[in-house]
Amino acid sequence: MFKKLRRYFSILKVFIRYNLFSLLYREIQNNYVSNKKITCSVDREAQKNARKLRLAFEDLGVTFIKFGQIMSKRPDLIPFSYVQELSQLQNKVGSISFEEMTASFEGFNCDCQTKDVCDISSGSTTSFISQFDEFNKKPIASASIAQVYEAVLNGQKVAVKIARPNLIDLINVDLSIINDLKPLLVRMGGFGSNFDIDSFLDEFKELLNKEVDLRNEARNIMRFGEIFRSSKDIHIPNVHEALCTESVLVMDYMEGVLVKDLDDKNQKLRSKYAHIISSSYLEQVYVHGFYHADPHSGNILLREDGIAFIDFGEVGIIDSELKRNMLNLFYGIYKKNVDIAFEAFLKIANINKDDIDVHKFKVDLDSLISLQNFALGERQNDSYANLALKYDLALPSDFSTLERSLVLVEGVCLELDPKFNLIEDAKTLISMVMMKRYSPINAAEYFLLEGDRYLEIFKNLPQGINDVIETIRGYRFEKLEEKTKEIKHDKIIDSLSKYVFLSIILVSSAYLATQQDTNLANLGIVGFVVALFLFGVLFLKHQ
Fold first, then answer.
1. CA-CA distance, 239 to 249, in Å (whole number)?
2. pLDDT value at position 508?
3. In angstroms, rounded to a whole number, what is the distance separating the alpha carbons of residues 20 and 213?
4. Nearest to residue 394, comparing CAs of 182, 193, 190?
5. β-strand pairing of 315-317 with 134-135
6. Are 386 and 366 in contact (CB under 8 A)?
7. Which is nearest to 379 in space by CA: 415, 333, 344?
8. Radius of gyration of the chain (CA)
9. What are the distances in angstroms from CA 274 to CA 87, 268, 416?
10. C-alpha 336, offset from chain centre
11. Which residue has the higher pLDDT, 531 or 266?
């Protein structure tokens, strides 16, 4: 409780410092899709507000930094100015001394001779350091979740990533506070009306839990290593599993040059790097459905023998259905077929044609297709989010995360080659995957995998058919009984009406038979006799 109160006080001070409460009284979400290059006062004001929110999140530390980063990956939900600003959130924070990191070495054996007087932290540190030939205690990188050190293991240079101590306590307090502040954060962040804050927070908590456990990153690295094992151009660091714990990750040190530091003016070489990056990324997404979710220029190293990916804390996974719909969308764009792209987009957004203006949507989609195929050195992949924002569509979070990643990859490739167009690299992959999708081998494999399910269906088919027949038969009997009752009811009504009619004739005839007029008397007698006769016939008929 005291920790939470102290943290509330810290957050309140930051909110006041950046005047964030003023955002509660402003209309942030505009009713139009803002042009990125517009200079009107509304957009300048929105950019200023977004910058204040970014700076406040940076001051508040790891939980709020991560919260802002995940917000920046939802351009379908928040205005572009906020996406642009929050995507600049930096994990780089001031480093702490190696001695302060000792709490992260739990799990290594203590070297002390006398266990009763052993300093556990000191012993753990000694045990940890002793695993390496050399260990530089000065970090080469410092982020909100972990610090990275250089070391030498068995004569090989390695990178050691160590999680900051006591992260879980701070994160749990912050998550509790964020949950309390939901209405304020929704308003300050300019989220649209289609935003589900609870689902968003669940996704955020899951992301944080994965990132603070470095074993998840180790598994991600090993999975990527398996994917690109046979590739000569893509390099993934090896993980030294024996030294990895929840708080420690040891992997090969990857040498290379950052994109921004590449001095080579050879455009052919730069274009080659752009092609390798985009092709490998498209393969991750559309072939394996498992991709690096934070592929900014700082996480891609350029080498003489290709490229290397680093920092695998954030990964994306897309299921087979979304992968198929995404591929169909790209196929429609590649073929410049609005109808194919339209149907795929509807499935991705999970909406019906009746929910949107189809004609206007297709016109906008046609413009997107034109942009994708004939781009003039400009970003293209944030167009999907702009389209969703314009028509107030909530795209799946997996799709939004993927789109954000594609935007980052596209930015890196454009930095290398101003004429880069992602769709050109996608054409070959799309054709290959589409052919593979409908190949006889793939079809046979599918039926083998699904064989047991189909066999179970066929086994239960006779019983199912019998159940249907019995249901139909019961339905028919039920309907027949209802019809019989209706007929009986109608017969009773008909008989009663006949009896009433004959009774009227009988009474009328008896009255006429008593009259003085001979003709009327004779008519009454005849009517009375006929009525009695018909009564008798009717009575015998119903026996």
1. 8
2. 72
3. 32
4. 193
5. unpaired
6. no
7. 415
8. 38
9. 22, 10, 6
10. 26
11. 266
DSSP output for 152-186: EETTEEEEEEEEPTTHHHHHHHHHHHHHHTHHHHH
Give bridge partners of residue 53 from the DSSP assignment. Answer: none
DSSP string, 100-112: GGGGGGTTSPP--
pLDDT at 112 over 60: no
Q: Are 142 and 92 in contact (CB under 8 A)?
A: yes
Nearest to 237 by CA among 227, 224, 247, 248: 224
Q: How many whole angstroms separate alpha carbon 291 and alpha carbon 309? A: 11
Place of tokens 């991560």: 66
Interatomic CA distance for residues 298 and 399, integer angstroms: 23
β-strands 248-252, 300-303: how paired? unpaired
Here the tokens at position 216 are 């998840």
Amino acid 127 reads: S
Structural element, H or E, at residue 290: strand 290-292
pTM across the whole model: 0.70
Alpha-carbon distance of 58 to 54, in angstroms, equals 6
How far is the C-alpha of 480 from the C-alpha of 125, rounded, in Å? 87
Q: Could you report the per-residue pLDDT of 363-412, keeping only the tens digit for each?
A: 998 988 887 777 655 555 556 777 877 787 777 778 877 877 888 888 89
CA dist 9 to 3, 13, 60, 177, 187, Å?
A: 10, 6, 11, 11, 21
What is the DSSP-derived secondary structure letter of residue 285?
I
- Polymer length in residues for the chain: 543
Q: How far apart are CA 415 and CA 270, in angstroms?
A: 9
Q: Is 490 exposed, middle or buried (0-12, 13-18, 19+ CB in 10 A)?
A: exposed
pLDDT tens-place string over residues 4-56: 888 888 988 988 888 877 766 554 444 444 444 444 545 677 778 888 888 88
The token pair at 324 is: 């198929």
Give the helix/strand (H/E) hosting 141.
Answer: strand 141-142
**Between helices 267-283 and 397-416, what is the axis angle to 10°?**
170
**257-258 β-sheet, strand order:** 234-235, 306-309, 300-303, 257-258
Query: Which string of b and e fits 140-171 if b means at least 16 CB within 10 Å?
Result: ebebbbbbbbbbebeeeebbbbbbbbebeeeb
Comparing CA positions, the residue from 245, 243, 248 lying closest to residue 153 is 243
**Residue 105, burial from CB neighbour count under 10 angstroms (0-12, 13-18, 19+):** buried
Distances (CA, A) of 42 to 76, 79, 81, 82: 20, 12, 11, 13
The residue written with tokens 């092609």 in the block is 275
